[in-house]
Amino acid sequence: xxxxxxxxxxxxxxxxxxxxxxxxxxxxxxxxxxxxxxxxxxxxxxxxxxxxxxxxxxxxxxxxxxxxxxxxxxxxxxxxxxxxxxxxxxxxxxxxxxxxxxxxxxxxxxxxxxxxxxxxxxxxxxxxxxxxxxxxxxxxxxxxxxxxxxxxxxxxxxxx
Amino acid sequence: xxxxxxxxxxxxxxxxxxxxxxxxxxxxxxxxxxxxxxxxxxxxxxxxxxxxxxxxxxxxxxxxxxxxxxxxxxxxxxxxxxxxxxxxxxxxxxxxxxxxxx
Lengths: 160, 102
Prior knowledge:
The structure holds 2 protein chains of 2 kinds.
Chain A lengths: L9 E6 L4 H16 L3 E6 L29 H4 L4 H15 L5 H10 L3 E5 H6 L13 E3 L1 H7 L5 E5 L1
Parallel strand pairs in A: 1-2, 1-5, 2-3, 3-4
Helix pairs in contact in A: 1-4
Chain B lengths: L1 E4 L2 E4 L14 H10 L6 H15 L6 H6 L5 H7 L4 H9 L9
Antiparallel strand pairs in B: 1-2
């Protein structure tokens, strides 16, 4: 008989987007899991790789186009500088609630024991090298490897 | 509600956090630590004292703040209290569970 009573023991999060709101969602969920004693790993794939790309991770934006929650006309959201402005405003608000920037958040997660993985297929597609990426990633792995990482009772997978 | 901790009746909430810090003693802290499978060392107590002091000064505790303190870094915090460090350490310290997500 298993004594497992349904609690979450491991969160496997797949981040496929590089918009700031999605990156933060993944980071908060992973870090929040560790704070509760739950294991957490993030698999960065497709545009999600930008969140661990050294030259790009400081320059992520929120989406002003195709984002109904921005409450601005799509045409307006597409004007030059609009994404930067919205991003700047959001970053200011986040600093107020003690939210770290992307680089600091990566450092916090690594120190907290979150494992970070880059997707091999996406790395090949974007012609990224390991040296381009944040130094503390666990490695470049395949989907199969990631599934293997998630084996065990109480693992949940989340696609962002 | 009240719970017997280290031979004394202590006021706690439904998650087991002390609701009256004046009832806290090191024996109470040690008993809570034992319940959470933590073997307290002098280093653990240093961290507990730091957290109690932060709480006294009305500082909202978060993992990020721990990382920025000069008392310890995040890695050590997780080593000392592996199963949810902020949650476990504040319970041992007799202070409220921080409502922080970061």
